[in-house]
Amino acid sequence: MARAELTTVETVHDERSWLFTVADDYGNEEEVILLPCEESVEAWVNTCPHEFQRFDRGMGAAMRDGQVICPKHGSMFDTCSGDCDNGEAAGTTLVDVGLAVDDGTVYLDDEDYVFRHEGGIDDTDDGPSSTSHLSF
Ligand code: FES
Questions:
Q1: What are the extents of the domains in the chain?
Q2: Which atom of ligand 1 has the smallest separation from the CA of 70?
Q3: Which residues are within 8 A (CB) of 102 and not within 5 positions of it... i.e. 6 or more apart?
Q4: Is the CB of 48 under 6 A from ligand 1?
Q5: What is the pLDDT of the chain when averaged over all its residues?
Q6: For ligand 1, is residue 129 a contact (CB within 6 Å)?
Q7: What is the rounded distance in angstroms from the CA atom of residue 48 to the CA atom of residue 108?
Q8: Listed residue (21, 102, 87) closest to 68, CA to CA
Q9: Deepest of 3, 94, 103, 112, by most Cβ within 10 A of its Cβ?
Q10: What's the CA angle centered on 129, arms 21 and 31, to 5 degrees?
Q11: Is the CB of 70 under 6 A from ligand 1?
């Protein structure tokens, strides 16, 4: 797959997380978050391995001490390794997505995914959404 330009390392460090949507070969969409890791960034699928909870629900991911915090049960994952050693998700690891970082610019570089758009799966800019006011 061709590399797709995403954002800059500086933006991810300023905003602390950067959410985007990719699609696999079958057109299935997946949310990915960029998180600061030391001086660079890493990309992880935006889902806690414990119970399919999104980390960034559209308002940025909760972070503390270089770790991203699951909003559901509070397990913390290392943003560099993706590993979790605490709480309900202990022993799990986030699913990583391939990146290339070139002179401060971050590119998606993963043969399994193509870039769709910035933001979450439902977060498109193309016109009014007929599904945004579902009631239950
Ligand atoms: S869903 Fe994330 S720790 Fe339980």
A1: 4-117
A2: 2
A3: none
A4: yes
A5: 91
A6: no
A7: 21
A8: 87
A9: 94
A10: 15
A11: yes
